[in-house]
Amino acid sequence: MTQAIDKLQTNLSTQPAFTALRCRECGETYELGAKHVCEDVCFGPLEVIYDYDLIRQRVSRASIEAGPKSIWRYKDFLPVANDPIDVGTGMTPLLKANRLARRLGLKSLYIKNDAVNMPTLSFKDRVVSIALTRARELGFTTVSCASTGNLANSTAAIAAHAGLDCCVFIPSDLEAGKVLGTLIYAPTVMAVKGNYDQVNRLCSEVANTHGWGFVNINLRPYYSEGSKTLGYEVAEQLGWKLPDHIVAPLASGSLFTKIYKGFQEFVKTGLVEDKAVRFSGAQAEGCSPISQAFKEGRDFVSPVKPNTIAKSIAIGNPADGIYALDIARKTNGNIEDVTDAEIVDGIKLLAETEGIFTETAGGTTIAVLKKLVEAGKIDPDETTVAYITGNGLKTQEAVQGYIGEPLTIEPKLDSFERALERARTLERLDWQQVLV
Ligand SMILES: *Cc1c(COP(=O)(O)O)cnc(C)c1O
Ligand SMILES: [Zn+2]
Fold this sequence. Notes:
This protein is of the alpha/beta class. The protein has four domains: 2-58; 94-121 and 226-398, Rossmann fold, CATH 3.40.50; 124-223, Rossmann fold; 407-436, no CATH class. The protein has helices spanning 2-14, 52-58, 61-65, 98-104, 124-137, 150-162, 176-183, 196-210, 220-225, 228-237, 254-268, 289-295, 321-330, 340-354, 360-374, 413-435, and strands spanning 18-23, 29-30, 46-50, 94-96, 108-113, 142-146, 165-171, 188-192, 213-214, 245-249, 278-284, 335-338, 383-388. The chain has a six-stranded mixed sheet with strand order 4-5-13-10-11-12, sandwiched between helices. A four-stranded parallel sheet has the order 8-7-6-9. A three-stranded antiparallel sheet has the order 2-1-3. α5 crosses α6 (150-162), α6 packs parallel to α7 and α11 (254-268) crosses α13. The longest helix is centred in the C-terminal third of the chain and has 23 residues, at 413-435. The radius of gyration is 23 Å and the shape is globular. The protein starts with a helix and ends with a helix. Bound molecules: pyridoxal-5'-phosphate (PLP) and zinc ion. Residues 122, 124, 148, 150, 249-255, 312-313, 359, 361, 389-390 line the site of pyridoxal-5'-phosphate (PLP).
């Protein structure tokens, strides 16, 4: 009898807090399967819902701080039931960016640096760790994705670690580093002659016919929850406080909306005090459907054909665009876009001031941050967090020709001295140009 009660209590204390899938549009609920649209009623997107009373009873600041140094310290808030696939994803640095702040005229700026996330150097490792853990729980043996590059890297790497079969789909014109960074894990790679939106459409058909777990299609409700950890970590790293303003890149808009959900959940479960956080989104001008809708005051997003160097965020028909719009508006934030030239400058600015080499998506974020400060849309006194989501070593093409060159010298002291003198002269010339 006592044994039975003990068992019941253990079950209660380990029973996961995620309870159902629910349609964001009509509220219809579904069982926790591999399903992402409200097929019975309105075809809206499905989202994971939780028993927050249960989570509140279970977690505290101390219990989280005592957890693993990865996203799995927040396991109670995530849609997985069993042992997670833990490849060390998450708990990336939150850096106080004093030099960049001074350059931009801000007083309190932080960089959340997912350029060094594990294992594949982008924020996608967060969403894939969750999606593949859930895929395994749901019995999938083959996993897949439609990717703009980073997602393929991450899916292939974590599938390799977990011993899952993997087949990924990418547009055929991706950067060399993104393609190599997938092939090395030896998945099947389909390079589709088309843009991301065409890749995604093809994958929806494959998902219906092959019974594979597509991390960002039939597993999307679980996958997208992984981005909440970008909110949790920033709150914890700021000393259990929310920032005043965040700036993050927008592709499908999912990441942006989930940082918001993450902050809200921490407030709901009593981990942080409530605060009005402003949400600002960043797009490349060559693929700016959400930014255009924002500026034109529309509450719908019109698809565009992408044409930008920021390929990782080049989604012309963003699935979560309208929700991102809504969050930017109701939090008194903004959505802004920048040119490819400004993106390159953004990459260089972050590298030169903070020692962080980000990819084109991060360059977009920094360039938009700068533009918003210059337009008076970020207050210098606001504690602002810019999310850097990917690593520059993967998109070297973008800065090729816009950076210096090594000085080639003989292995002799006088050759070095002459080269150094030349370098200093060039530097002085540079300065004179700045001064005139
Ligand atoms: C995928 C991606 C994003 C944006 O993701 P969404 O959730 O689709 O908006 C941002 N930055 C990088 C580097 C990415 O790879
Ligand atoms: Zn619905």
